[in-house]
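Example record for the data management plan.
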Amino acid sequence: MEAFSIFAAVVVLVAVALVVAGVKTVPQGEKWTVERFGRYTRTLESGLRLIVPFVDRIGRKLTVMEQVLDVPAQTVITKDNAAVVADGVVFFRIDDAARAAYQVRNLEEAIVNLTTTNLRSVIGAMDLDDTLSNRQKINEILMGVVDEATNPWGIKIIRIEIRDLKMSAELQDAMNLQMTAERRRRAQVTEANGRREAEILQAEGEKQAAILRAEGDRQAAFLNAEAREREALAEAKATQMVSQAIAAGNIQAIQYFLGTKYVEALKEIGAADNSKLVLMPLEAGGITGAVAGITELVRQAAPPRA
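Corresponding structural encoding:
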């Protein structure tokens, strides 16, 4: 009876040992590799899994969730020989646990070193201004290069971010002076453009004003010419009427003609600059006769009333 109890206890212990050695619980977000006599055989997914006790063993326990690695700060020389200190972060995920476990030793260190090397290459091919203004471009180039390099390791690079770019104090002061000079230049260019546009607008206004003045002068000249033409026609008609009356022996026409010439002569004498006061004998009868002659001519020229 005592021997049977010992045997039963041994069997229970062996069974417990077999269960502990053969039943594995893989946590969510992890993958475990299984090795048989030191050789990789398969990968255990999350959940309750079975292996051959004492024959199989767990090789590597890998996290397949997205992970973050810090890229340490380092001094990088740009294309134009400017020294900047750059650091960043790498986001990656293990897609193939077997390759991540057996294709590279110390996976995280390999990713950091690879990112550091390519960061120097990318920034070294760019000028300082491009480096400071194109972080997104640097991130995209780095992610493409590092993702391609780590693909044989079963790694997927999610993204790479440049966290900080620092310059020396002397370089920062030089850039501030350059920025100030550039802003002054832009201000001067803007002011010059403003003056030029103002002068153009002023010249355009003067041009339009000159056109309008010329148009007004042309219209005034046309009206003056038309008025002179009408006056000449009226004078010619009057002269024709007087000539016809004289030819007919009308004494009133002769008086009209002489009277108008007399009045015009007096008007010219009175309008002279050196004539302030004019005293001369004036025959009122001559003027009266001229007026009478004009009246008679008008009466004769008027059509008879019905």
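Summary line stored alongside the record: The longest helix spans residues 169-247.
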